[in-house]
Amino acid sequence: MPTYETLPRFTADLDRLTPEQRRRFRRAVTAFVHDLRTERGRFRAGLRVKGVRSAPGVFELTWNGNGRATWQYGPALLPGVQHVIWRRIGTHDILTGP
User: Fold this and answer.
1) Pairing state between β 3-6 and 83-90
2) Is the pTM of this model over 0.85?
3) Which of 37, 60, 61, 75 has the fewest CB atoms found within 10 Å of its own CB?
4) 10, 88 contact by CB (below 8 A)
5) Residue of 76, 70, 42, 39 whose CA lies nearest to 56
């Protein structure tokens, strides 16, 4: 199971999401975690994971049409286990300052 942390801005963004947006994000994260564990860095096409051009090392996970979450890999906290740092969550607008 990958480890993770959230930046304060992610937590504030998450609090502003509607209950339906949070539910859809949790569903996407379930698939995201499964792919991290089993696909060795490859994600299923439906998750639409890609790099953020303006921020090297930062990735975007698209969920629910206009739903976006940005994240990056962090130093492993446990040997051999990937660590994810969640940065922002919301709509496409979060990409103006990932």
Assistant:
1) parallel
2) yes
3) 75
4) yes
5) 70
